[in-house]
Amino acid sequence: MIAKGYAASEVGGQMISWTFDRRKPRPEDVEIDILYCGVCHSDLHQTRNDWQNTVYPVVPGQEIIGRVLAVGSSVRKFRPGDIVAVGPIVDACLECAHCAAGEEQYCLNRPTLTYNGRDRVSGDVTYGGYSTGIVVSEEFVMPLPQGLAINRAAPLLCAGIAGWSPLRRWEIGAGSRVGIVGLGGVGHIAVKLAVALGAQVTVITSSATKIEDALKLGATNVVLSSDEQAMVEASGHLDYILDTIPVPHDLSVYLDLLSLEGSLVVVGSLGSHGSIRPESLLRGRKQVSASIVGGIAETMELLQFCAERQILPDTETIAMQDINMAFARMEHRDIKYRFVIDMATLKAEMA
Asked: Which of 167, 299, 322, 336 has its CA 20 to 30 A from that of 37?
């Protein structure tokens, strides 16, 4: 499959149009015409090589909604015309203990990432959803439930599952006192999901401009992290904190907000998060953990949950040609709360 996409070719370089070859489909593969792709903060990090692992040229995009074009001879779950979804993982060994448990994202033999990964068979670099089409193993393609708007659902596949997976793992439900740190792409969906699960949600933000939005999204309380008195008054009031801030930061300031045996889970960033004093954890048997995305079954559970309750990200649709502008706005926090690329604009460029 010959595909057209947008790629970064060097550190600090602009995203530009690029034509490339997709790998040859195998019997277990699904060929997908990409309709929409979400813009994830990870995409910005990877194009800038912030994590020191980018292979250039890099075609980002790991929140994909598309239509099936063709299927391989062994494919049984899909047929041409189906509307489907693809998230951050496009393959895994499916044999290790983690894969057997439905946790393909933690594959002991390493999952194949949708982009900037390595194909499990050929070893070639993978390219993501900022493109016209993609080839994916059937086991990593998900049907999009009816009722989910195809032009808004894409961010659920990374930002959504990043919050959903730990909320489910820590059994958040009715009566849970949940704190969401950061109200961005991941945080705003996490608020909606936690509220839908029955939790009492407190948003912790450094920006007073986010207070009104947090309450509209369903939060019952908002704490400004810059307000020392407000932070003191909130001490011990939360059972669980989901930290969605996308850059390294000090975690210790949030630990006092946890109650006995409370947990703080980092989902937003890689890198150093400062030092944590043991006494911060000892005073209440508190825990600090981390989570990435979810496995395929868990992601499908999220999509169904959102379809049934009409939970969707707050999105702004852009043209593919506006991706550099979108990245610049993301850096300045000028988005409420997630960009989605309409791939019809890329196909029009080819006409």
From this structure: 167
Sole residue written with tokens 């992601």: 299
Other beta carbons within 10 angstroms of residue 301's beta carbon come to 16
Strand-pair partners of 83: 67
Domains of the chain: 2-158+294-350 (3.90.180.10), 162-290 (3.40.50.720)
Amino acid at 273: H
Residue type, 56: Y
Claim: this prediction has a pTM higher than 0.90: yes
Catalogue the E-assigned strands of the chain. Answer: 2-7, 16-21, 29-38, 64-71, 83-86, 89-91, 112-113, 133-137, 142-143, 177-181, 200-205, 221-224, 238-243, 258-266, 287-290, 315-319, 338-342
State which H helix or E strand residue 115 sits in.
none
Tokens of 62: 């790991």
Return the C-alpha torsion angle 303, 309, 315, 319, nearest 10: 50
Crossing angle, helix 185-196 and helix 296-309, to 10 degrees? 70
Lowest mean pLDDT among 58-67, 221-230, 276-285: 276-285
3-state SS, residue 302: helix
Four-residue CA torsion sign, 61, 64, 69, 72: positive
Comparing 248 with 288, the larger pLDDT belongs to 288
Tens digit of each residue's pLDDT (9 = 90 or more) over 150-179: 999 999 999 999 999 999 999 999 999 999
The Cα 56–Cα 7 span in angstroms is 8
